[in-house]
Structures are given as structure tokens and as C-alpha cells.
Amino acid sequence: MEDLGFNSFCKTKESRMPVYDNNQGISRFPEFLKSECKSNLLLGSEKLRWLTPKAFLELDNMLLSINSNRVGLVKLVVGNTSAGYYKELENCDTYIDLRYIPELSCIRRDPVGIEIGAAVTISKAICALREGAIVYKKIAAHMEKIGTKFVQNTGSIGGNLVMAQREHFPSDIATILLGAGAFVNIRSGTAYETVSLEEFLERPHLDSKSVLSSVKIPLWELDRKLLFETYRAAPRAHGNALAYVNAAFLAELSSCGSSGGAVLNKCLLAFGAYGKKHAIRAREVEKLLTGRVLTARVLYEAINLVKATVVPEEGTGSEAYRSSVAVGFLFEFLSPLADATIGISRCTLSSKDAEENYEEGGHVKCPRMLSSSRQVFQLHIDYRPVGEPIVTSGAALQASGEAVYADDIPSPENCLHGSFVYSTKPLARVRGIQVNPKSQSNWISGLINYKDIPKGGKNVGSMTIFGSEPLFADDFTQCAGDRLAFLVAGTQKEADVASRLAIVNYDLENLEAPILTVEDAVARSSFFQVPPFLYPKEVGDFSKGMAEADHQIFSAEVKIDSQYYFYMESQTALAVPDEDNCMVVYSSSQCPEYVHATIAQCIGVPEHNVRVITRRVGGGFGGKAIKSMPVATACALAAHVLRQPVRIYVNRKTDMIMAGGRHPMKITYSVGFKSTGKITALKLDILVDAGIYTDISPVIPSNFMAVLRKYDWGALSFDIKVCKTNTVSRSAMRGPGEVQGSYVAEAIIENIASTLSVNADCVRKINLHTHDSLMLFHPDSSGEVPEYTLSLIWEKLAQSSEYSQRREMVSEFNKCNVWKKRGLSCVPIVHELIVRPAPGRVSILRDGSIVVEVGGIELGQGLWTKVKQMTAFALGLIKCDALEVDLLEKVRIIQADTLSLIQGGFTAGSTTSESSCEAVRLCCEILVERLRPLKEKLKTEMGSVQWEMLIQQAHMQVVNLSTSSYSGPDFSSNRYLTYGAAVSEVEVNLLTGGTTILRSDILYDCGRSLNPAVDLGQIEGAYVQGIGYFMLEEYTRNSDGLVTSDGTWTYKIPTVDTIPKQFNVEILSSGNHKNRVLSSKACGEPPLLLASSVHCATRAAVRAAREQLQSWGYHDEYGPTFNLEVPAVMPTVKEQCGLDNVETYMKWKMSTHRVEQ
Ligand SMILES: Cc1cc2nc3c(=O)[nH]c(=O)nc-3n(C[C@H](O)[C@H](O)[C@H](O)COP(=O)(O)OP(=O)(O)OC[C@H]3O[C@@H](n4cnc5c(N)ncnc54)[C@H](O)[C@@H]3O)c2cc1C
């Protein structure tokens, strides 16, 4: 960093990265970086060996020389991508790279098939296969869905199959090759053996001295009576997610002369990844089908047998779902054949069918990802350059990787690295922590715990206005994920390995049972206090409202779970001890001021001895607020104790375990409403799971209720308890409490609509506020009548999204399609925002360039960009010649430094950009006032005044060109409302529970946007993060409360294939807002809430599926009122559509004699 005088790219004055030019086609690797690449492989330690045999003989000798006690330490590798999956099990010191043995990298074709060397990468195999017969093309198309392009380019076919055989990896390749009847060649010493893939998978694990040399896929006759398909149900269809279940089916068919039906002469049915050791052939089902005419009855028998065959092992998760999807796959494959009205030829492989999947040149057609988008905004030029869609400040540096984040700062000499040892038990006595003998003792420099807090210091890891949280557990751990100690070692890897291997000695004797649920907390009265000024106020008389209702629902329940922040940059800090008991800490934090105070308290020094610097943060979403404090404090404490610099980059697993995330909740409500859908009264009992420490949890009730008030509920009554449980404390996450409040409002509306059997959007519309009811529900923030834009938004969006026409189209689609249903939903938001005080300083240097400091942190939300624009606008009011555009180029925003600019506060709640802008505007106003007399004088003397000349003269005439300010809106105008709505259309696959967001249209009120390009990015980004919450991200825990979704393998955030296929965003420019900063309104968090429209649209589609299910009979329990959990992942959706919907359909068809039996 500049302050230390070094920087990862400090050798150059400016970026040497070539500027991206999209007219030049593909960008090449920069020449200057090539010379910096080391020619030798970097293994990270001299103790590791990397061997590269060039022939089998050389390999044999290497394998022979491995003595038996070193077997686990030697690993054959091709791409070594398995290290990503089995990262915690790896402990090798010798790697034998198979890529240079020619026989392993060959692809051979002969008249009976194609043989692919085991070291051939998945990409190369895809290229070879798509040039072959149609079965090969289909295999290639399936392989395109494996991992990412990087994994395909690096990982090998053989590596994948060995992982499946030896490590029970849920492979796609094993399943699809099993379905295609493949064989493998194994080389043990000099002997070769060919066995079927099925036998290979069933054998004992391939021993460490045998090598898989190739796989052979037979060439299936290319006549028109062959059917081959592969299937895959995964959380993200094309985006790096392992399958819940996959399958490949091959059938040879003939036609039954008398009936015209299809006879299966031969079939191969392979299922995999469903929670058994390896992929299997469903032999019994194959036997049942072979030689039989495929009637509905036979198909029914077959699917029942599949259900009994594809049974995951206990503990797999979603077991019933996986079996049910396996049934769906076979049904999809065979049902067209069982329907006598469809001839075989239409179902078997013709080259045309397969060709349709390919583009010119044989490339598999890309699945439709984001197909179109529209971004609409109105340009305002009154405050130029404020209001212009200027490119985000530092975007090029970020895109080229040159932007310096805390972890990019090169380590100072003697720098040590830390890693947290956390508890895996919820409530236990900690008898001791032992370093595992497997981690080399010379790695470890210290194991810091609460006993190391210096005299005068305090065991404090974070602070808020509600209290503090200890840095380390004392003799008792309070939750799984609690920080027990900080292990310090020479490198980050050594610290991570040693902390993972550390052995914690727990003692549970005579301890009460932990409180792990909100129900437990209620039973044991374990609550946090909510200060009265934060407890929300009720509206009207609930009993009276209920008495006016035509219908009443009592004690309905909604449960909502947590969400992890998933910032790209994990928590990180570097602490450097300085002279005179001082400490400089670089922290990736949303609130360096509080990090600063916490460190000072912990190590027992005055605050002026500590300096915290934050340049930028690689994503925060609230997780870098309170939760960044213990990370930096632990480094500072270790640095203080060891008198050496200490840093940490918290690994993803530890971060996910300790992060806490969004607050889970349980809500029980009673609601009364008229037959028209007009709501008359609502009462809620809300239990918030806050975890073990207060954090910011006391604000959750007011946030929740503020957003729930988006509708006119008639009378509103509630009881909210913030429960203290033995789980990691929850913290603020983008829209904290607000996302839950908004969703619960929608869940209630959906329930009312289902009860009345009407469209939920009509119930929404009828309950939108008038300005009068808005004033009742939001007395402190409702604003003037013209500021209430929600009705306008609702109407405008209905038009731009073609809502009415699409409703009809959706209903038509649902009539025509049995296994796919669509839903459409429009959801509004009314979001209250609070503007907090913020400091700023503006200084004009001798050459006219300007340096700006603000309390707000750049988190990727574009704060710096807006501040730059504001500085240029506000200083431009001096009106020198040709100024505004030039001035923008002259402004640099510098990092937050807690000793340079105090009272930075929290970068949170969406409004920090505007309050930082306001602080800067105030500074500029002062500077302009100071400069004006001089400027007028020069103007009179010279006719025209250039900025540079004015500043030079000002310096000479001793004008003070630096000033600071602290913007603090008064309490009467620091709250305001903003509005928006989104219409989403979702398609649900009733066989897999998979959802596709076909289209989302958003209309959001930004006031007068300070920068529409930045705001559009914020709106789209927040919305997509909301899609993750509502549809994908399962933040699961075990029975001790320990997080089990602790990595990207299990926690699935949205990717390009999960976002809406059509994504239209419009910023409503709602005119003048006199109390807002240049009439602007915030947009960092509220649009996240709009993503519940996707959930509601999914629910509408599921409702259509259930209506259909009911029409088939047998399913009274699938009524119109149901609860679709959040997130609506595939198993959840499928469960609500009927796990046995296929069987029900078949029974119905057979009973109504619509098909031949
Ligand atoms: C992010 C990610 C996503 C993925 N997603 C999917 C997916 O969706 N579907 C899927 O099927 N797979 C998936 N994979 C698995 C991927 O296909 C495999 O990791 C890859 O194919 C392994 O090849 P490799 O060359 O890297 O094997 P390596 O890691 O080099 O080796 C894997 C194992 O096989 C052994 N081995 C390798 N070659 C031989 C040989 N010839 N003889 C004997 N032993 C050998 C090694 O000793 C090691 O134990 C994913 C992997 C990653 C990292």
C-alpha cells in the first residue's frame, strides 16, 4: 500500500496492462508478464517432488520404487483438479504427472468404437466425440455441463473415473459412459486388462500401483431404431454444480407387428450421483423391459422398480427427491414410446435430432443464458457531472487485477500468518487445545487465546452500540463456530493446516443442553433486549379489524433460514506493530472506526496508538461490518504479543462457519380479510434467531416491521422476540430483517389469494397504500403526496412488462403442457432508508489536483465514483473556464485512514454514498467560498480564469485549500421511503423441480440518480443476490449448529445461467426530493427484496402443478394453500409439485384408459 511505500505493481508508474479494446478480438497474455512467469513449477515448498515420466517404463520404475509405507504420500496426477474436491484429505509429498506418457494422451478410432487415453482432458474428449456418431455427440453435449471450462481444460477423463471408482465421487462421466456400455483398460505393472466400466466401478479400489490407461466407448449402430439420452438434475444446470442425480439410457428398438407398439430389444439404464458409492446399471429394470412391448402398464412397472432401485444411502440428503427424479428421467425417456399414438421413428435418434443441438463447426449449442436485457433511465444534466452514467472509478484497475486489496499488500519482513481454531460443539467446557503432531511443530509460532490479552486490555472482538462480543471463548465455548484460539505460523497454508488439525479437548459433563432453536429459546426465556426506541409501533385495533373480516386465517407459520455473504474477497487483515506501542492495521472492513476502537480496547492502548487503513473492500454485503472486527483484532493481538507483523486471509470454510449471516426467523400470524381480498387485520409473533451475541440484532425488529408495512394491513399488531441461542451470532446482511419482512408480507398475501382462489397480484393491488394509509403506517418517513410513487410504478410496470397479455399466455401454456408450468408475479416494495452522519475532507493541491477523503468505504457499490462526481460538480460551481469534465479527472479518492479522518462510522444501510457525497459537497461549498473573491479579482484583471491558475494564485495568497466537514441531517428529515416493483415469470419442470427465470422486469425509484450506470449495477446485482437467497442458497447446519454448507461444492450462488433470461431494468426518475442529496435516493439494498417476485412466480407455477395433480385424483393433500420454503431449491419445488406426480399421472392415465395397457 502507498503508506508502506510498496504495492504489488509499484514498480510501474501507471498500469502496464493493455487497455481492453473489443475491436481487437481476443486479448493476448501481456508480453511483460510473460517474463515474470517462473519457468519451473512452483510447489510452494522444497519438500515436495513433481515427477514427469515420459514413458510407461519410467513410470513403472517410479511406482516400483515406492515402498509400502509411502503409498499415501505419492499421487498420480493429470490435472490434479481432484485436490479441489478432496482438499482436506491431501497430504502428499510426491506427485507423478501422467501427461507426458504418449499412450495415455491418445485418442484412437476403429470400426467398433473410440478409445480415449486416460490423461486426455475433458475438453479434448468433447472435441473428439462431437465429431463422431450421434451417441458420441450426446456424450459430448453432456460433458459440456461438467465443472467449468477451466476444469474441462485441465481435468482428465481417467482422473474423473478414478475419482468415481476410488473416492466415490458423484461423477457424470462414469454414469454417461456406463449408459453407453464403455470398457476400461487397466495397466498393472506390464500387464493390461480390459474390463467393463461397470465391473471397474464395482471392484475394490484401484491400487496405487495400477494405472487406468484408457476408456473405450463402443460404436452403436447408426440405424434409426436406437435411442440414447443423458440426464442431469443439478442446482445450476450449466454452472459448476454437481448433480443430485444423473442418468444415461440407451435402447435398441423394434416395432411390434401386431400392435405397432415399441419393443425394447436391448436397453442399458445407468443412474449415478444419487448417493450410492458409484453409478449403477439398473439391471432389474433392464430385465423387466427387455423384449417387452412398451405399454403404459410396463412403463408403470418399470418406474416403480426404478424407485426401488435408485435408493440413496441414508444421510445423503434429499433422498426421496433423488429417487423421484430418477423415476422422472426414465419416464421422460420411455413415455413417448409407450404412447401408441407416437411412432417409434419419431423418438429414435435421427441425425437431424442430434444435429439440432450443434452449431456450425460441430460446437455444442450454448444453452440460452442471458438472452436479452433492457436498461432504461432518464438523463439529468442540471448537476453535471452528477447524474451522468460515468464508468465506475477504478474499474480498469479491478478488471486487470491491479487494484490493491488488503491481502495484495506484500508481507513485511518476518510476517506471520494466523488461522482461527473454532469450536465444533455448541456448549462445552474447553479443557485444552493441542497442536496435532501431524502438523510440524516448527511451523507454529504461537497459539493465542483469551489468556494472552495483555494487562489493561479486554477480551473484546467486536463492538456495537448494543454491546460487545468476546474475541475468544474463555473456558467455555458458547456455540459451534466460536473462536477458541488464533494459531500463528510462518505461512497461511501452514497456519490453516495446523489449525484444522488442532485437537480440542471438550468436556460436556454437568452442562445444560444448548439452546439451538428459537423454540428452545422461548422455553428457556433466552432473549436479547430491544431498546424501547427501536421497538416498532403497532397500528389500529387488531380485534376490531378481525371482527370486520369475512375470512380469517389463524396461526399460519412461515420459517425463513439464513444466507451467507459470499463476498469474493474473504475476511482479511494485516497488523504491523509500530514504534512506541502503536499498531497499524490494514483491514477489509465496512467500519474501520469500530475496528480501530475494538483493537485499542483489546490490546489496552489509547485509541491514538492504533491506525486502521482500508483502501477498498472486495464485497461486504454487511459481512465486513461487525464480523471484520475480530479478524483484525486477532491479528493485532497476535502482532502485539509476538512483536511481529501478523496477517490472515480467512479461508472460505472457516469464514462460512464463523460468519453467521442473515437472521433465521419463525413467524406465526393470524390475518383477517374481506372476500374481495382487502385485509382488515394482521397479527404476528416473530421469533428472530440472533445467535449467541447481540451484534446488531436489536435493529432487526424495526427493520422487519418497517418493510412489512408495504401493504395497508388495516390493523397491525405484533410481538417480536430476539432469541439468544447457542449458534454463531447473526449479523447484518444486505437488507437485514427487511428481506424477511418483505417476504413474510408476500407469504401472507399468497396465503390469502390461495384461500380465496384468486390471483395473488390482485390481492396485492387491492392492499397497496393510499398516501393516507402510508402516513399511518410510516409516520416518520411518508413524505409529500407526489413523493409516493408506488401506484405509478405499479401501473407503469404492468404496461412495460406486458403483464396482462403474459398472464393469458401463461395460462394457455399451462393448459397445453403437462410437465412444465409457468407462473407470473408482481411484487412491490416500500423501503425505509435512514441517512446517517458522515465525514469528508477535500484538499486542493498546488497543481490543481484534488484529494478527497470520506468516511464511507468503497465496497464495489460505486461510492468513490459518486463522490468524485459530486466533488467535480460542487467545486465546479466556482465557474472557471471549461471546468466540470476536467475536474472529474483531477479528483482522487484515497483510502480510509482512521487517524486522518475520524467518525467514519459504518458503510451500511445503502445511504453511505449519498451521505459521503453530502459531506464532500459541504467541503466544496466552503472551498468555493474561500476561492470566490480571488476568482472574481482574477476575472476582472484577466478576463478568463483557468482552474490551475486560480489554485496556484490561491496557494501563493495563503488561502486554506483543505477543509473537512461532518454531514448530519436533522432527525426530522433523515428517514425517507423509496419504492419499486418487479414482475417475474418462472417456468418449473415438474419432473425435476428445476426452475428457469424466463423474465424479470424491475422498475425502481432512484429519485434523481447520482449515477444511473452505477445504480443500474446496484439494482441488478442486489436482485441477483436476492435470487440466490430465495431460490438457491442453502446455509445448512448440523444438529450441533455447526455450518455444513461450508464451501462452493455445497453452497450455490447464482451464476450466469440462473439469472433471468430476459432482464429489464428501468430507473424511475421521480423528480425533486428537497431533503435528499441533489434529489437522489439509495438503491444498494432495496432491490434485493424484489427478488421475492421470482419466488412468488415459482409458487404460482407450483400452484398450477398442484391443480393439475388434483385433477388426476388421489391427492387431496395437494390443495391450493401450501408453504413453499425459502430457498425454493429443486427438491423443495419438486416436493410441492408431488414427489410421485409421475406415478399419479400414470395411474390416472391407465384408469381413464387413455393409453393402451
Ligand atoms: C470445480 C469442479 C467441478 C467439477 N464438476 C464436475 C461435474 O459436474 N461432473 C463430474 O463428473 N465431474 C466434475 N468434476 C470432477 C472433474 O471432472 C475431475 O476433477 C477431473 O476430471 C479429474 O481429472 P484430473 O486429471 O484433474 O485428475 P487428478 O486430480 O489428477 O486425479 C484424480 C485422481 O485420480 C488418480 N488418477 C488420475 N489419473 C489416473 C490414472 N490414469 N490411473 C490411475 N489413477 C489416476 C489420481 O491419483 C487421483 O486420485 C469437477 C471438478 C472440479 C474441480
Quick summary of this structure?
The chain is an alpha+beta fold and 1157 residues long.
Q: What features would you highlight for this structure?
A:
1157 residues, 5-stranded antiparallel β-sheet, 8-stranded mixed β-sheet, binds flavin-adenine dinucleotide, globular, alpha+beta, 22% strand, disordered N terminus, single chain, 32% helix
Kindly describe this structure.
FAD binds at residues 156-160, 172, 212, 232. Residues 43-222 form the FAD-binding PCMH-type domain. Its EC number is 1.2.3.7. Mo-molybdopterin binds at residues 590, 621, 734, 909. With 1157 residues, the protein is α+β, with helices and mostly antiparallel strands. It contains 35 helices and 39 strands. An eight-stranded mixed beta sheet has the order 16-20-14-27-24-25-26-35, sandwiched between helices. A five-stranded antiparallel beta sheet has the order 4-5-8-6-7. It has a five-stranded mixed beta sheet with strand order 13-39-38-37-31, sandwiched between helices. The longest helix has 31 residues, at 912-942. It binds flavin-adenine dinucleotide (FAD). Flavin-adenine dinucleotide binds at residues 75-82, 84-85, 98, 118, 122, 146-147, 151, 154-156, 158-160, 162-163, 171-173, 206, 211-212, 240, 242. Residues 75-82, 84-85, 98, 118, 122, 146-147, 151, 154-156, 158-160, 162-163, 171-173, 206, 211-212, 240, 242 line the site of flavin-adenine dinucleotide.
